[in-house]
Amino acid sequence: MKRQKTAYELSASQVTTPAKAISLFWRLTGRRRKPLGSVLDLGAGDCRFAHGGNYSRYVGVEIDPRRSKEAVLPHNGELLHGCAFQHSGQDYDACVGNPPYVRHHYIENPWKEKTVAGIEDALGVTLKLNCNLYLYFLCLGLVKTHDKGLVAMIIPYEWVSRPSASPVREFIRAKKWNVTVYRFREQIFQDVLTTASVTIIDKGSTDGRWSFFDLDQKSRIIPRRGPAESEEGVIEYEKRGNAWALRGMSPGTQKVFTLTEGERNHFGLKKTDVVPCVTTLRDVPLSLRTLTRAAFKKHYIDAGGRCWLIKSFSKKISPTLKAYLEAVPAKLRDTWTCHNQTPWYKFRPHPTPQLLVGSGFTRYGPKVVVNSVGALAVGSVWGIHSARRLPGRKLQQHLYGIDVEKRVVAHASKLKKIEVKQLNSLLNAFNEHQRSKT
Question: Domains along the chain?
C-alpha cells in the first residue's frame, strides 16, 4: 500500500505512546465514563489505544500504513486507512488517542485553510492559523462525538494557557462542558520536551467545571490549584506598551550565522564583519547584573560561546565574508528561514535591546542582564526594548522580584519558559507602577 500524502510532515509528528501511559489513560478515562460504547481513535498508529479500554466498538483511523502494519486489533476493532479529517463517521461515544503534534510552520497551505474552514463550519470554532496540529484533532474529536460524548486525548499541557488555543478554550467554556486535565510531572515521550497531559472533555457534564491534577512518577493523582502553581494564575499575554519584549532573532541557523571567537579567526573575519550577540544566558552566573565588555569577553569570547553574529544583512559585504557565505554547504542553509530570504543569507536584524532575558529557566525565573555591551539577542534570548532609556537596574530588580516559575505553564518537566507577550505583561505592570509613583 502506498503512503498517502498529507499536508504535514509525518515523521515529525509520529511519537509512540508508552504502554504505561496508555494504561493510565484508560484508568483516568474510566473515572468519567465506564463502560463506553463506540470509540474513535484519530491518528491511531499501531492501534495501541485499542487495548486496555472498556468499550463495545473501536474504530481507528491512520493515514500512514507503515505505522499500522503491525497493528493488533481486538475482535470488536476496525482500522481504516486515510486522513482523519475525511472520515465520515459521526456520533461516537468517545474520541481517544494521542494526536500528532506539529508546529504551524510545518502545516501546508491550502490544506490548513481548508481544514480550519471545515472545523468552523462543523463546530463554530475559528482556529488561529498559528496553532499546532493537535488542536485540529481535538476539535475534530468534538465534532465526531455526540452531544453527551467524551473526548479524551494525550496532548501538550500548554493548551490550557497558550493564546493559540484560546478559541478552543472559549468555545468549551461557552458550552459549559466539564474539563479534567492531568499533567504529567515526568517526561513520558523520549526526546520530546513538551509537557504532556491527559485531557478529558465531558460533553455530558455541563456545569462548566475545570479540574487540574498532577500525575507523579508512580501515577498518583495530585490536585493542582489550576493551570499554574500560583494563586495569581498564569501570567497574562499582553501587547507591547512603552517598553516591550522582542523574540530573539532567527537569522536562519546558528551554525552558519553565529560564530565563536575561534571560528571568526579561522575564517579570517574581522570585527567589522560581525556584531556581538548572545544566544544563551545559561552559563552566565546569576550574580551578573550587567553584561559589560569585560563580562562579555569572559563569559562568551574566552569561553568559546557563539557570540558573533555575521553582518550578512549589510548593504556592503566584505570579500572575506562573501567568501565565507559562498563556502557554506547547501545542507546547512536548507532551512525555512533561508529559503524565504533573498538572497538566502540576508536576514533582517533587530534593534539592540536594552536588557537581555533568557526565556528558558529551571527554577524561580529567567536571568536578566543589562545590555551594556550592545549585543543582539538571538534564538531563545529575548530582548527588552523601548523608545526611551529604561531604568535598567530598577526594571531588572522588578523582574527578579517575581516568582515566574509559579506563574507559567511548564514547557517540560524541568524546563519553564516565559513567552514574549507574558514578558510584555510584566513590563506593562512595571511601567504602570513607575507612573503611579510620579
Answer: 19-223 (3.40.50.150), 243-437 (3.90.220)
